[in-house]
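[Q] Does anyone have a clean structure-token version of this?
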Amino acid sequence: MVWQYALDHDFAVVTTNARDFIELLDAPVHPGLIVLRESGLSRQDQWERLIPVVEHAKKSADQDFLLNKLIEITGVGQFTIREISEPTE
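[A] Here you go.
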């Protein structure tokens, strides 16, 4: 339900539920998924990990920066960005 709402409204999703949401990345085009790979984080801890990702996106000056991307955050300032291509039939 959350993923469909995000797709319908062009919203990226930020989650700690990596397994379920990564499985949903089979849409031909999606607005992006940001996954926090650490569990048990407080809201403050989550923000500390998200801020470097937001700053990185802002520096890109690409309004479609997250389009079809999976960003996995593993620590403060530690993240990887992967392009998720269109699923094959």
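[Q] Thanks! Anything notable?
[A] The chain is about 35% helix and 20% strand.
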